[in-house]
Amino acid sequence: MKSLFYIALAVCACTAQINALLPPDQALQRLIEGNTRYTKDQFVSPDRTQERRSELVSTQTPFAVIVGCSDSRVTPEIIFDQGIGDLFVVRVAGNVVAPVELDSVEYAVGVLGASFVLVLGHENCGAVKAVLNDQTKDIEALANLIEPAIAKAKDAPGDPLENAVKANAKSVADYLKSTTLLRKKIQGGTVQVKAGYYNLKSGKVDILPE
């Protein structure tokens, strides 16, 4: 059933697949450059015109996937200074990935041709903080996904919350790298998956070491 779903979507997105795609390293560089503009209040705000909206009625070709937190302070199109159709964004509290989120990521990569996936954690993440403080009532599903990363980071030096947020982002990125579609794309050199950390005050996104 899942393969038939992708075939149907691929027919609708055939234009996206034949377009020239950004290599992963260039996609990352484009994100970094956009974030630098954002931190300096030098917005270019590309591709937000009526003409661009018209171009995207029948197809889309995002160059990157952002798996981010639902937090209102962390809006990918803004913090990376990108326009309509540039980013495929999957947002959920704690930037975790369960089967539904994975389907979205795989669609963006496998059908739309996005070449870079960034799992973006952020400073003072409420979801991670709640799990860290064992305040998980009513968010048990999220907690189950975040707890393993917190356990890994519990003995690390430095700020416990920052360590937990970064460990969680890395854990989600590692999981994505292990999935069948993304693993094949990574091995073929057409996709990269990395984790990042967004600093609320400065606005800067740090790409975390693997």
* Shape verdict: globular
Radius of gyration, taken over Cα atoms and rounded to an integer in Å: 17 Å
CATH class: Alpha Beta
Main beta-sheet annotation: 5 strands, mixed
Number of DSSP-assigned strands:
5
State which percent range the strand residues make up. 5-15%
Would you summarize the structure shown here?
This protein has ten helices and five strands, in the order H-H-H-H-E-H-E-H-E-H-H-H-H-E-E. It has 210 residues and is of the alpha/beta class.
How are the elements arranged and paired?
Elements: H1 2-12, H2 14-18, H3 24-39, H4 50-55, E1 64-68, H5 76-79, E2 87-91, H6 99-110, E3 116-122, H7 126-132, H8 140-153, H9 160-178, H10 180-187, E4 192-198, E5 205-207
Parallel strand pairs: 1-2, 1-3, 3-4
Antiparallel strand pairs: 4-5
Helix pairs in contact: 7-8, 8-9
Walk me through the structure:
The radius of gyration is 17 Å and the shape is globular. Helix 7 (126-132) crosses helix 8 (140-153) and helix 8 (140-153) crosses helix 9. It has ten helices and five strands. Strands 2-1-3-4-5 form a five-stranded mixed beta sheet, sandwiched between helices. The protein is α/β, with parallel strands linked by helices and 210 residues long. 49% of the residues lie in helices and 13% in strands. It has a single domain (2-207), classed as 3-Layer(aba) Sandwich (Beta-carbonic Anhydrase, Chain A), CATH 3.40.1050. The chain has helices at residues 2-12, 14-18, 24-39, 50-55, 76-79, 99-110, 126-132, 140-153, 160-178, 180-187; strands at residues 64-68, 87-91, 116-122, 192-198, 205-207.
